Every structure is written in structure tokens, then in C-alpha cells.
Automatic annotation (TrEMBL):
<feature type="domain" description="EAL">
    <location>
        <begin position="23"/>
        <end position="278"/>
    </location>
</feature>
<protein>
    <submittedName>
        <fullName>Putative Diguanylate cyclase</fullName>
    </submittedName>
</protein>
Length: 278
């Protein structure tokens, strides 16, 4: 029995070791990916649920690994955050997505207005030159502030409340819009949400996907929408996959949505073919 215990520890050790090695490889690959620009931006349409009009896109990063193929952001964003590499990745995504929107504005003027929504991580928010970078991008691309939405999470809001309010105020001075992503999944910042100058609440797909199966989740969604409206915010639902979900959300007063029902995240070229060449 003693030996068995020891053997088990050895297996555990070996597994830990394998995990550490894999992580190290991934980290090296991630550094190389930044140097060699192995990232792509995909775009998921955001739809006005009452008239089905395209109002814009969420930019979602994709990593095209030279040997492993596509790697999901769910796999590499956490590591990118731990290592700080996310700052460079997000800068690139922000610039690329803005350039893409500027190109589409010229190429498809009959589709205006279109907006671009970008995901930020906590580190992006901590870096000192975020505002300068936004100014630079707006100048380079000629976009108006109101054409850009920044998606942030609740935990980013409450990390340093006063600093966050200052930062968001600077961002709002440039007319950008702010969206609270994955609302309801993390920290609940209900008691001070009203202090932040935000524009949208995004209902996490985990609530939307369970609306049909569980009445409780329908109630949660309904409560989030009411709460958002009390705070004067517009609501975006993510992960809409069925017509039933869409109809319920619309009835509950949710104005905007995205999900496989409308479209998956697509390459810029696919977006042009399926959504803009009409
Ligand atoms: P998120 O911001 O909550 O993005 C929504 C995720 O839901 C995306 O996953 C999207 O592809 C997926 N999705 C969209 N519609 C549906 C649907 O109908 N059903 C289901 N089941 N899923 C749907 P993705 O692209 O794998 O991204 C995962 C997460 O990685 C994002 O979650 C976001 O937190 C992070 N992420 C992605 N791109 C970036 C980026 O450029 N910067 C940062 N900082 N984070 C990013
Ligand atoms: Ca998002
Ligand atoms: Ca989200
Ligand atoms: Ca989510």
C-alpha cells in the first residue's frame, strides 16, 4: 500500500511536470506568434433584435498556429493575461479592427452606421497609455469615438474604483461607448454600477442558453434586463442560438443580440460576402 502511494505521487509529479512543460511551450509559441503576426481578427455581427438590422461587430481574436492550427482564445487568453502578452495582442486587435471598420465604411457606405466592439483585459486598463493609444487610433483611422465600443468585465470595474471612473470618464470624453461583458457571471458590482459611465450590459451566453431549460434562468435574464433599464443601459444578449431565445429576449426588452442564430464569428472576407455585399 505504501509503494502504491508513492507511485501515485510520482504519476502526479510527472503530470504536473507535463503541464508545466506544455505551458512553457505555449508561452514561447505565444511570444513568437506576436513577432510573426499569427493572429487574425474575426467579426461576429451584432443585430438589432426588433428589426434584424446589422448594427456592428464584436472583434474576436484568433490564433492560427503554424503546426497546431486554430487555437481558441479560451486556451491562450488566460496565459496571455498571466504573462502580460495580452497588452500587445489587444493593441493589435484594437488597431486591426478599427482599420477594418474604416475600410468597410468606405467600401460599403450604404451600411452605415456600423460599430466595432473590442474586448479589453484588466492589464489593458492598467497600462498608462491607453488613452493616447485610443487618440492615436482614432486619428489614424479617421473613425469617430462613437463608432467604437470597449467591452470590459465587472471585475475590471471594481479593481480600483476611483481610477476606473477617471479612466472611463476620459474614454467617454472621446465619445466611445462602454459595455459590461459577461454580466452576472463574476463579481456582482450591483451596488456601484450606477457610478460608472457605462452604456451597455452584455448578458452572458450561459444565461441565454439555459433560458429554455430552466425557468430560473429565464427569471435571471428578465431581472438583468430590468436592472439594466433602471440604470439607463441598453442590453446586448450574447450566445443566441434559437428563435425562441430571440423572441423571449425581445419581449423582455433586450434590444441587441449576437449568436449563432445570426452568425458565427467570421473572417473579414466572409463578413463582406455574407453581410455587406447586398
Ligand atoms: P466573450 O467576449 O464573452 O465572447 C463571446 C464568445 O462566445 C466568443 O468566443 C464567441 O465566438 C462565442 N459565441 C458567439 N456566439 C455564440 C453562440 O451562439 N453560442 C455559443 N456557444 N458561443 C457563441 P471566443 O471567440 O472563443 O472568445 C472567447 C473569449 O475570449 C471571449 O469571450 C473573450 O473573453 C476572450 N477574447 C476573445 N477575443 C479577445 C480579444 O481580442 N481580447 C481579449 N482581451 N479577450 C478576447
Ligand atoms: Ca466580449
Ligand atoms: Ca461576453
Ligand atoms: Ca461570455
Amino acid at each position: 500500500a505504501k509503494n502504491q502511494g508513492k507511485a501515485r505521487y510520482e504519476i502526479f509529479d510527472r503530470e504536473m511536470h507535463a503541464v508545466a512543460i506544455k505551458r512553457l511551450h505555449l508561452e514561447n509559441d505565444l511570444r513568437r506568434a506576436i513577432e510573426q503576426q499569427q493572429f487574425l481578427v474575426y467579426y461576429q455581427p451584432i443585430i438589432n433584435l426588433s428589426n434584424h438590422r446589422l448594427i456592428g461587430f464584436e472583434a474576436l481574436v484568433r490564433w492560427q498556429h503554424p503546426t497546431r492550427g486554430f487555437i481558441s482564445p479560451i486556451e491562450f487568453i488566460p496565459l496571455a493575461e498571466e504573462t502580460g502578452l495580452i497588452i500587445m495582442i489587444d493593441s493589435w486587435v484594437l488597431f486591426t479592427a478599427c482599420q477594418q471598420l474604416a475600410t468597410w465604411k468606405i467600401k460599403f457606405p450604404h451600411y452605415l452606421p456600423l460599430k466595432m466592439s473590442i474586448n479589453l483585459s484588466a492589464q489593458d486598463f492598467r497600462k498608462i497609455n491607453l488613452i493616447e493609444e485610443i487618440d492615436h487610433i482614432l486619428m489614424e483611422t479617421g473613425l469617430e469615438g462613437q463608432e467604437l465600443t470597449l467591452e470590459i468585465t465587472e471585475s475590471m470595474l471594481i479593481e480600483n474604483i476611483n481610477k476606473t471612473i477617471d479612466l472611463l470618464t476620459e474614454i467617454k470624453l472621446r465619445n466611445l461607448e462602454i459595455s459590461i461583458d459577461d454580466f452576472g457571471t463574476g463579481y456582482s458590482s450591483l451596488n456601484y454600477l450606477h457610478r460608472f459611465p457605462v452604456d451597455y450590459l452584455k448578458i452572458d451566453s450561459s444565461f441565454v442558453s439555459q433560458m429554455q431549460e430552466e425557468n430560473r434562468n429565464y427569471q435571471v435574464v428578465s431581472t438583468i434586463i430590468d436592472l439594466g433599464h433602471h440604470l439607463g443601459l441598453a442590453i446586448v444578449a450574447e450566445g443566441i442560438e434559437t428563435g425562441q431565445q430571440m423572441r423571449w429576449l425581445r419581449e423582455l426588452g433586450c434590444k441587441f443580440g449576437q449568436g449563432y442564430l445570426f452568425a458565427q464569428p467570421l473572417s473579414a472576407q466572409e463578413i463582406e460576402i455574407k453581410f455587406l455585399h447586398k
